[in-house]
Design a protein that fits this description.
Its main location: membrane. The chain is mostly helical. It has four helices and no strands.
């Protein structure tokens, strides 16, 4: 049985189109626009999902920051040995415990802010002040 060949492929089978070869989760190549505006709706939904993921990831990272800063403060504050290994006599150790306490307090405030923002959608402070607080707190904590 002969199949009519229109010059596109062998035996009348069309080659796979660009939309079928494109990966499903490819962000760099958005789906081709359609006449009814599906592409705009799809891009908005993808943006919402991305922003929601970023909020959840930020909350998870703040929770990890809180846990690790609490753990470091507890370990530093409870490091009690006798005799010559009494670290409370060293000024550097007391400084380290003080910095560990400040990092714990800062991470606690950040976690509470993030949880409130995630659960209610509102923040304790305006967006600009919150951004400045985040930036300065993170910079002081690093240096």
């Amino acid at each position: 049985m002969a199949v009519a060949n229109n010059g596109t492929s062998k035996q009348g089978i069309d080659p796979p189109s660009e939309t079928t070869t494109r990966r499903a989760g490819d962000v760099e190549q958005p789906p081709p626009p359609t006449a009814d505006g599906d592409a705009a709706i799809t891009s908005v939904v993808q943006r919402w999902k991305r922003e929601d993921f970023q909020e959840k990831a930020g909350l998870l990272l703040r929770a990890l920051q809180f846990i690790f800063s609490l753990l470091s403060f507890i370990l530093m504050a409870s490091n009690k040995h006798g005799d010559w290994m009494n670290f409370d006599r060293y000024e550097e150790y007391r400084y380290l415990v003080g910095i560990s306490l400040l990092v714990f307090l800062y991470s606690s405030v950040q976690l509470v802010r993030q949880v409130r923002r995630f659960s209610t959608g509102h923040d304790f402070m305006p967006a600009r002040a919150g951004t400045i607080f985040d930036f300065t707190g993170d910079q002081v904590k690093v240096s």
